[in-house]
Amino acid sequence: MAQPANRALFEEMAIDCLGTLPDTEERNLILRAPEEMPYLRAALVNAWQADGYTIFLPDSAKSGVRIAYAVEEAGIRYEKRRRKQLAREARLALRYDISDADGRVLADERCALMRSDVVARAQRAALESEAWPETQGTPPRRSKVRRLLEPAVLTAAMAITAWLFFSLRSSEEDSS
Fold first, then answer.
1. Residues near 26 by Cβ (< 8 Å), separated by ≥ 6?
2. Are 150 and 132 part of one and the same domain?
3. For 88-108, how does the pLDDT look when each residue is reduced to its tens digit (9 = 90+)?
4. Host domain of residue 58
5. Does residue 127 share a domain with residue 46?
6. How far is the CA of 167 from the CAs of 12, 47, 69, 98, in angstroms?
7. What gap in Å lies between CA 74 and CA 159, rounded to an integer?
8. Distance separating alpha carbons of residues 62 and 34, to the nearest angstrom
9. Residue 113: inside a domain, yes or no?
10. Mind listing the pLDDT tens digit for each residue in 114-168?
11. Structure pTM?
């Protein structure tokens, strides 16, 4: 089964946080969204429009339910799971407030969600997007044993190769 891209995980979490709005008769929404992570705004607008809402920008003269949100935290973290697998953890925290057309506060909350799954190490690059830094996680560090043992084995292999090369070369000269 194909794993969702990191950006898609953030979109799903944003919809889980803000997709369901408090019950009001008003079907007009006035949205104030941050500049960062614009794909969250697009996902939320699509979800709200599918529910029958009409979305307006903050400078609109329309009245309606006002929604403002800010991204407090967004990030991806990987941990080594098995030889060819990584445990992926996506975190998203949104601070939002919702008020009706009269200015009465309907919600003023923080929503923090986390999703985790296991992905193939080879898939990591396909899950991330260079255009959105928050979708890029840092690769897990190699284990201490591997970090210390790998250079030692390579050094020993080079030393043995050099010794064999010169030993065989001097043996050929002695036999001639």
1. 63, 64, 65, 100, 101
2. no
3. 999 999 999 999 988 899 999
4. 6-140
5. yes
6. 65, 74, 73, 80
7. 48
8. 20
9. yes
10. 999 999 988 888 999 889 999 998 877 766 666 677 788 888 889 888 888 888 7
11. 0.77
